[in-house]
Amino acid sequence: MKSLPKYFLPFLFFYSFFAKAQLPEILNYDYGGRPELIGRIVLKKPFLLVDKLTNGKNTDGEKFQSIYNWVAKNIDFDFRYYYASGVFPQPDLVKILKRKMANAFEYAFLMDTFCYMAGIKNVSLYGYVKDLLSDVNDSLYNDTHAWNAVNLDNSWYLYDITFSKGFLYYRYTKFSQFIVYLKNKFTVRYVPKKVKEKKTKYLRHAACGGFVVSEGKGNKITVLKAVSKHKLLRKFLSRFRIKLIRDYKKESTTKYFLTEPELFAVTHCPDNPDWSMISGRSRMQYERDSSYYHLTDTLYSLQKRHGSVCPDCEGYLLMDDLNKTFYYRKKSMTFNDRNGYTPSECEYKIACLKFEESKKSEDSLTKITLLDTALAFIQHAKSNFLQASNNLSTSRYLQSIKNSKKLSDLIDDNKLHSRFIRSKMELSFQETRNIRDLENKLETDAKKFYFRNRVIDHYREGKEIDRDVQRIELTIKYLKSQVIYKMSSIDSLNNLIKNLRQQFSEALPDLNKNLMKKIVNHDSLLIPLQKSMQYRNDFLDSYKKRIVEVRKQMYVFEKNYSSEIDSIIYKPADFCYETGKRISSLIDERNQMRQESYRLRCQLVKFSEIEPGNIDAYKEELKNENQEDLCWINGNNRYLQAIFYGFRTLLAKQSVFDGMLYQENKIEVCRYMITNYELGRRKRNYQKIISGSRKTVNVKNREIKRIKVTI
Question: Do residues 669 and 589 both lie within one domain?
Fold first, then answer.
């Protein structure tokens, strides 16, 4: 065996000292795997289970870790039972172990009981928690959760075993999942396809030779076309309503295990603020704490878990039951005067304690005084329960207003996005019509140029000149000047036509290329919208950070999209449309001048000023020019058709964006309805707890009065 390096022992000593300082025994998370069977003996004598779990454990940290792991591993969360802080009736330990299910209050009670059996200080804390339906600036009315604080090595640590088991979420029903899967599978896709170029017989018979400058082989052009299979299936699937249901996902996590108090206070706020381990934290600070929107798994993983020294907490535990209840009532009412339920609980406990004290008193006067005190606190409890019931309705009303505002805000915001994309759709539609009009115009010109060759052949030629006719010098001079003027104008028009053709022929392929590129990259505009829809499917709303950031991105993407598509698509398309129309009108004007120049030349032939053979040469020149015009149209016809298909595809893709906005509104309506249902369910369940508590208070009230009458 090789000897250890000489520096190994000092390193080991340093490491062991450092590890001890970090309390490794309370940082060993292990509550995965299959749950254990609970025998009948354990159900009858739970302390045997605690003895088994803590056997061989020397420190409180090790004992607590063992108990925590066992509870988290073997007791499931009963998410169907909405928790509201109530003490009527007291949880049954045997029932919890037998069912192997617990709500938040029962989890806290179970940890209290097991830690007490193991000799560990553990306290149940009741208060407020932020969940999936919570937002910043929500008003606190009634406490809705329970968690624990444990004392290890003279420091208090906070933990929530309920949140460590998993989390509530909303998911599609199985049938809705199947419908969504089919919709995603049979969606419309745009793929490059070669389609046959449409040519009229006038372009097909044009003998242009190698003059045609176009991409592709043969007479086919490449365009993006929608693969529109399963149209009936998609239409059939759109008739089904997507449904969400509430579910609980079991996921072991250490986020809320001995959590850093500052991080724990973002989501949890106790009725007694002393137990938050943060001095001076008020209800308003908790309500307005926007850190809730910025919580991430990274923050929890990087937290420095540490305990806190809390003299007020220690002093609270040293009080007797009566003083504890008075102190808790005072702290709760000072922290949140809108919470009527917790003070009523405390007043009921005080009444019970006074009633029990009256039983032990032998003096009738003292007994009557104690019973009167109990009855007074019973009356306070009844009035506070009534306030709690009213506050419950107020809370439900405010939550409904907030939920409606989230829906209306999204609909208004999507109206702006829909207005934007529809303005672009109008431009795309207008450009589609312009390109089609230009294409039809050039086809009409092609037909005209095709028959013009025959017209040129039938131009009347000069007749034989009578040599005895006296020449008219002024007429000849006028005709020559007109011919020179016409030829000068024709040359100017030819130069202008040549320049415009060059610009048109350069802009048209670039427009086609940019259009194809924009169609392919158009999906980048959909990215933030798709993310927003995905987050909304996860039941996030417009107030949550991820959706807020994505919605901001939508405006940035739209601004970039607008500036880019205007500069490389719409403006070049307008230029091509106007230039094409102008070229067509200039060619018509030039041809008209050519015809007039031919007539003037024929008259000069009559006066023997030019040779008749020049007329034939001039006719050949007209035919060549006409053939060049025809071939120019033939060369650009391919691009015009490709651009027309491109604008139609772009229009279809833009309509997809508009349709997705409508789908997002439907998802938000679904979230709105489910949230309203959940708020109503919570109100009903909490109302049942309040009603049950009031019945218990009334029973105690009658019992105290009956005892008082007998004295």
Answer: yes
